[in-house]
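[SOLVED] Need 3D model of a two-part complex

Original post:
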Amino acid sequence: MKVKIWGARGSVPSPGPETTRYGGNTSCVQVTLSDGTIIALDAGTGIRGMGLALSEEGTRINILLTHLHLDHIQGLMFFAPAFRPSSEIVVWGPESPEASLHDRIARYISAPLSPVEMRELPCDVSFRDAPHTEWQIGTATVRAASVAHRGPTLGYRITEGDTSLCYIPDHEPGLGVQLGSDDPDWISGFELARGATMLFHDCQYTNAEYPHHVGWGHCKLGDALAFANRVEPERVMLFHHDPLHSDDFLDAFHGTAIAGWEELGGRAAQIELASERREVEIAAPEPAPAK
Amino acid sequence: MANGQRPLELILARNFLSSLSTPGFLVDEDGVLVFYNESAAVLLGVSFEDAGRMGPEEWGTAFGPFDDSGERVPFEELPLTVALRQGRPAHSHFTIRSMKGAEHAIEASALPIRASEETSGAMVFFWPLGARA
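Solution:
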């Protein structure tokens, strides 16, 4: 399973000289399965670059939306494959009792916010509520689960063979919960993330910033690490960086994260901060040699 | 729900109740009492941690409840039972008896917790009307 990060920023695009290394585009992660199947996790502004990088020949793409906040769908209108008749795009997202996924997204891809209407897109595009049970995309099994954020929000787990990627970019699991000690049944996202080969997880705030943002649906570093410590992934990719956090700030933040992770008994190499254009090939760990 | 993970709406309901000073109970889709908050513990005379999870028949009788004439209120008439079984809000008043023997007259309002057109549990709030020693 190959992974490429096209946008790691949260809330709002934040381009500029202070964010050139970690990037200013909002959430989008490309997953390419062993059979070539392409999955986009979220469609923030990062998906624009992903679309430009894809082949112009007939392309089938599954887009898994965690939720419909603007920083996770803003790039849809600038996704090049959506403007090619040869493309087939399937958009998955959280169900809502209020309106269909198509109709909710159409509020963005329609006047006055957009010069293009959904019905004008030349590609073959369909919208599907993420099922409550696992389903198959290419060679992968995909699972979705509701997680604690503002509004209907999903996390996803993509499993191919022995390798699994769990993606929970917007998540506040520590609200009213003792992440270090509460029963796992009561921790949002626990089953989805447990034992994943790689966990992409919200880490928008420092511990000092968080008290001003309680209930906004995002994680402080301490909670991101505590959650990861409970679910025991092989690797952790801290994600959804606050738009106010510059490259230099995030470098220092990474150091703090490593120190916190090591205090919890983890290894420094397991913790990374997501950066735009970063490519990772993830695979299940080699079994320990027999003694 | 996978491998015992609670539905998110139940997790959030528990978080909500744990932050309130209004006494509240939470039951899952099977009617099992899975949480009550510290304020409810004061009324009941025992913490949830000490009481533990209780099946429907157990929590329905552990603390009474009794009507105005001192008769036990049938389990199926309790607001929480109505909310869970009939999927609608319910309200009542009755007296409960704590583990320490104190009786409390309370108003109780229950409502089902629904998501994706399915009921995943119910919660009830108690409003104490006064202790009877």
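Edit: The beta strands of chain B are 24-28, 33-36, 90-97, 103-115, 118-131.
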